[in-house]
Amino acid sequence: xxxxxxxxxxxxxxxxxxxxxxxxxxxxxxxxxxxxxxxxxxxxxxxxxxxxxxxxxxxxxxxxxxxxxxxxxxxxxxxxxxxxxxxxxxxxxxxxxxxxxxxxxxxxxxxxxxxxxxxxxxxxxxxxxxxxxxxxxxxxxxxxxxxxxxxxxxxxxxxxxxxxxxxxx
Length: 169
What we know:
This protein has one domain: Sulfite Oxidase, Chain A, domain 2, CATH 3.90.420.10. It is about 20% helix and about 30% strand. It has helices at about 10-20, 35-40, 70-75, 155-169; strands spanning about 25, 35, 45-50, 55, 60, 65-70, 85-90, 95-100, 105-110, 115, 125, 140-145. A five-stranded mixed beta sheet has the order 2-1-12-7-8. Strands 3, 6, 9, 10 and 11 form a five-stranded antiparallel beta sheet that branches.
């Protein structure tokens, strides 16, 4: 039996991000910043244990995710008072988080108390408690601070993928 290669299906950009993690903060903030994992050491931490629902594969099992609440990034970036959304992305794949949810949503770097492997979306993965799996952005590389509703491409991409899968079956 041949062992399955765990990196098949993982985009090159994700492998680069895992090898050299960088988190870009930009938009309606004082100064654009690029953070590393060391920059997040010492920040408040939060955990979520639960599952998520996937449009393509149903309910995913419960897991324990730990990371930095998005609220912390508002302070780190010195966000403008009128910021209404944090647009969390990996390349063009993005999810807009309303400012009212930033205490509940975490940028996770641990899964079951271990660093998140690239196969599971590491080094950073967005976790929205009890959210849809397509909103759980893998390989996060940027957070945009927005005064207006930003591009929420994740939902559109997920719906298109689910439709394509339905047509194939």
